[in-house]
Amino acid sequence: MDYSLLLFAVLKSYLFLTIYQQAHYQFRSYVKHFLSNFLYYNLFPIFIVTVGFFSDDVFVWWLCGIYLLFCGSFYLFCRKPLKVTKRMARLIVLVVAVLIGYFFIPFAAPLFLLFSEYAVFPVLLLEKGISYMCNRPYIRTSEEKYSRFSGKRIAITGSFGKTSTKFLLHQALSCFDTVASTQKSYNTPLGISKFINETPLDAYQTVILEYGASKKNDIAYLCRTFPADVAFVTAIGYMHLDGFKTIEEVIREKMILPERLGDDGIAVLNYECEEIRNYRFQNKCTLVTYGFDYGDYQARNIEIGSVSKFDFYYLEEKLATVVVRLVGKHQLLNLTGVLAYCHHCGLDLLKIVRAAYGFHVEKNRLERKQYHRQLVLDDSFNSNLKGFKEALYILKESPGTHILLTPGMVELGKYVRILSEQLIEDIVSACDIVILVGYANTRVFYQRLKEYALEVYVVRNFKEGYRLYQTMIKTKDLTTLLIENDLPDLYRVGWTI
Q: Which pTM does this prediction carry?
């Protein structure tokens, strides 16, 4: 039983290290997750250990030890697997060493090992200090290398649309210059440093960085470390509210980027976003504004489909008709911002328009996938209110039976009920069948949608939800499935996920 408890703690370390990694090595999210799931993770192990230690029967002792290992094996089934980076390898060694040390502490060993996710706090703190000391020179090296770069420096931020805009801008500017941009969603100081240190910047004329922020002062730090000549703000909305608390804090944080530009800088702003449009600028930099109904540059006469089209205007002058294979109106808005910047800089707009038909964005951002007569709209990367509504509109216009598979939206703080309520009518209008992943995150959806004549199902995880979908399509000739948002293990709450 004693050795089983040690092995149980080692197995459980896979879970809590995965959660710690998904929380971007932040204690607040890590602790919140385990406190929210205390009984979910610990009730049965506590019961098994209690029975084992208070039993005099050797058979019961061994049976409890085997069952404890069986419980521990379930901690290995994380939706998002652990990535063994250098930092994580260091953490694994430290954690296993400490767990073995706890094993030899008289009387207290079961307590430390049973609640190992809390017992390793000193190890996580120690490693955090070690990582800071290791990372600081690495970031300093990238900062110095970046400061010597003499080309155009562009930074993109926003609550959503950052990565898609970065991809589109990279493709547009590549028609004229050599362009380097951060990979995927690398938008933290360490991620940006990795990109800069591994990229021969001298070989490029333009560098595009993505700035992410999950709490106050994140953007300010990135502006000091990696300053920009051009700033894009794609949108401001209800995202990362566990770190910011209010939308006003989000606005102030995101707008730090254009406010930190010099007087000769260029701020490219999405005026379709009310929070950006109403922001009172203190900077004297040049403003390039875009939108559908607002801004100097606008996309008008929009036609949405597998091939979309819109007219691109500057003030009242039609500049071009753009035909693209991008999915969703929000992607056309992102492209409008890119075209606005390129036209402002005097680049050959027609050359970009001709190339735009081949433009694409990162995977899992309302990506169309055709499987025989089953269409899948994969919007699983993340979710926000506007993007969710746009995806539902695309679903509504798609053929066949409309099925939604979603865990809802996360990190909405106190706004979760208000924002979820705003999606009900859109879901009812667009969907025939709704599959909700986890009752805890989708409680508002479930309670409201049951009032309508919809088929509503609640499943524990995505695998179960997708299996249910595969069962449904056997009896249907044509369907369209919308996968809206993903649900990493970090957001698991309660027994239903």
A: 0.84
